[in-house]
Amino acid sequence: MDQLEPMPGDWRRALAVVAHPDDLEYGCAAAVATWTGDGREVSYLVATKGEAGIDTLAPAEAAPLREREERASAAVVGVTSVEFLDHADGVIEYGLALRRDITAAIRRHRPELLITLNFADTWGGTYWNTPDHRAVGRATLDAAADAGNRWIFPDLGAEPWDGVRWVAVAGTDDPTHAVDVTAGLEAGIRSLTEHRAYIEALSTDPPEVYARSLIEGYTSETAGRFGGRPAIAFRLFSR
C-alpha cells in the first residue's frame, strides 16, 4: 500500500468540528494530544449534545452527561475550548443554518487547520455512515470558504477569516497523510475512556479495555503505511 505523507507542521491553531461527543475520541484525540503537547492550540466544536446516543437514557438526561464526558475527555488531551451547538442529535440537517454556525466558529477561532470526520456514504465501503456525520463534514468543508467571504453571513459581526489552509478528514477510506502519535497515544486512549457511560451502553468490556483495544488496533494498522510508527490517518484537502 502507498505510504502516507506526514501532516503539515507549520500551523499554530486548529478547530475540530464534529457531530457528536465521542466522535473525536475514536482516533483523532491521540493526534490532538500530540499537537497540544507540541504547543499547538486545538479547539472543539460539537454540533449536538449527543442526546440521542444512549438507548437507556432519555435525551434530557443524556445531554448533560455526554457534555460532561466530552469536556473531561478534551481536557485529557490538552483542549480547554469545547463548544456545543444546538442541532438535534440524529437529525442534523445540512443547510445554511449549519454552515452559518460553523462559519461563525471559524471566524472566532481563526484556525489554520480544520479537522472533521468522514462524510462519505460509508465506512470502509461496508458500513453505512450516519446522516449527522455526512452533514457536518460537508458543511465544515463548505464553511472553510464561507468564513473568508465577508458577503456570506455578514450579520455574524466577526471579521472574515481566509486563513484556513487545510481541512483534515479522519476516518476516510482513502487517507493521504498521517500523524505519528507515539507521544499522544496514551492520552488518546484515556480520552476515549472518559466516555464511560457511553461505552458502558455499547460494550460489555470495561471502558479501559475497550478504548485501548480500539485505539491501539487503529494506530497499529495505520503504522504499516507510516514507517511502522503508531499513527492517525487523515485525508488532507488544501485550500
Describe the structure.
By secondary structure, the protein is α/β, with parallel strands linked by helices. The protein has a single domain (about 5-239), classed as 3-Layer(aba) Sandwich (Rossmann fold), CATH 3.40.50.10320. The protein has seven helices and ten strands. The chain has helices at about 30-35, 60-75, 95-110, 130-145, 185-195, 195-200, 205-225; strands at about 5, 15-20, 40-45, 80-85, 115, 120-125, 125-130, 165-170, 175-180, 230-239. The strands form two sheets. Strands 1-9-10-8-5-2-3-4 form an eight-stranded mixed beta sheet, sandwiched between helices. Helix 2 (about 60-75) links the parallel strand 3 and strand 4 (about 80-85). Helix 1 (about 30-35) packs across helix 5 (about 185-195), helix 2 (about 60-75) packs antiparallel against helix 5 (about 185-195) and helix 3 packs across helix 4 (about 130-145). The longest helix has 18 residues, at about 60-75. The radius of gyration is 17 Å and the shape is globular. The two termini are about 25 Å apart. The mean pLDDT is about 95.
